[in-house]
Write a structure and sequence with these properties.
Layout (H helix, E strand, L loop, with lengths): L3 H26 L4 H11 L5 H12 L12 H29 L3 E2 L2 E2 L1 H12 L5 H28 L5 H31 L8 H28 L4 H28 L2 H4 L5 H5 L4 H8 L3 H10 L7 H13 L2 H22 L4 H15 L4
Antiparallel strand pairs: 1-2
Length: 369
């Protein structure tokens, strides 16, 4: 039986194979393009392949109910692995662009792509500003990863069993790309416009960012894409959506907690990095809403300061604990996981996929990285 660990190995191998094939194209154009290949390979060498796993189990979920043998044949598996690999390249592209927008220095324990291009500029002694070169080059790297993602996804979708299935899968991919791009803008907007917006809507706006920037494309969209490729019914797609969205929200809430309280050795990013970047998360919204006016002013002065030292980070962390905001976010995570698992129990899908999706739900919301 095709289990998640084997899927991850197949997706890893396909990504490596694909990047090697594209590196030869880059070098043929110009040897100066080698950094695009190297940085792509490094960025995609890590990660837990959660999106690939949800895509696969979305496909398996709509196999005949209670069937444990309806695994993909060789041709189907090849297309499914390409689809999963394409989603992982899309994720990598989003990370490159996100790091530029957030001015992040690291990603998965390594310098972020734009920082690597900056360093390259300095090492070679080129003219102009290293920062500008780094950002521009990384934007192009993200765009290239998007294009490569679409190559894999488009090829996989051509293997759909029917034209309606092909169209449904392509539409699910297109919706995902639109939503995450606009969600990224909403996140950027919140970081800049929060002081001029209605404070009573801060929580609602923070949750909106979670839904469109992360929740949908991390869980709901991969499920929908995989299920659509298999020809899922509307009832099955609706059930997977009702499972995927609250789970995706819980996944991002956990990510937000790790962005403030996570261990740098585990997360690959400095502890409290989200505080230095000034992310307007649900955790931040809940904290601000429970502070008096003077404490809120101090909180706002510190949040988003890239020069925050360790003592200031600890003070902001303690504020989040003392106000009860951290505890409330943990409650929200637990409630959304329960809601998602409840929907999963009622979903008209196969028992094997149901069990695997329940296990994945716990893994992505109880993680430390």
């Amino acid at each position: 039986m095709m289990e998640s660990p084997r899927l991850v190995k197949l997706v890893d191998a396909r990504i490596k194979e694909f990047l090697v094939s594209r590196e030869s194209i880059l070098i043929r154009i110009a040897p100066e393009l080698r950094p695009f290949a190297h940085y792509s390979r490094d960025l995609l060498s890590g990660g837990k392949r959660f999106r690939a796993q949800f895509c696969y189990w979305g496909w398996r979920a709509v196999s005949p109910v209670n069937s444990a043998t309806a695994v993909p044949g060789e041709a189907e598996l090849d297309a499914l692995v390409d689809l999963c690999a394409g989603l992982e390249l899309f994720h990598a592209a989003a990370l490159v662009h996100d790091d530029i927008i957030d001015n992040s220095d690291t990603r998965r324990g390594m310098p972020a792509a734009h920082r690597r291009f900056e360093a390259l500029h300095r090492e070679e002694g080129w003219r102009g500003e290293p920062e500008s070169f780094g950002e521009g080059s990384a934007i192009l790297l993200g765009d290239l990863l998007l294009a490569w993602s679409d190559e894999l996804i488009s090829g996989a979708v051509l293997g759909a069993p029917t034209l309606p299935t092909l169209i449904a899968t392509r539409e699910a991919v297109d919706v995902m790309r639109t939503e995450v791009t606009l969600g990224q803008y909403l996140d950027l907007l919140e970081e800049r416009a929060w002081a001029t917006t209605d404070p009573d809507r801060a929580f609602e706006r923070a949750e909106r960012v979670i839904v469109y920037k992360s929740a949908k494309y991390s869980v709901e969209a991969p499920l929908q894409i995989g299920a659509s490729l298999r020809g899922a019914s509307l009832e099955q797609l609706d059930s997977l959506r009702r499972f995927g969205l609250p789970l995706g929200i819980a996944f991002q809430l956990r990510d937000d907690v790790l962005g403030v309280f996570g261990d740098a050795a585990r997360t690959g990013k400095p502890s409290g990095d989200d505080l230095r970047e000034g992310k307007r998360t649900v955790l931040v919204s809940l904290t601000r809403g429970r502070l008096d006016a003077s404490s809120r002013r101090l909180f706002d002065e510190l949040l988003g300061d890239p020069e925050l030292d360790e003592s200031q980070i600890r003070m902001l962390q303690q504020t989040m604990r003392d106000t009860g905001a951290l505890a409330e976010v943990e409650t929200m995570i637990a409630e959304r996981v329960r809601s998602a698992l409840g929907e999963l129990e009622r979903a008209p899908i196969g028992d094997t996929a149901r069990a695997e999706l329940a296990s994945l739900a716990r893994v992505i919301t109880q993680r430390e990285t």
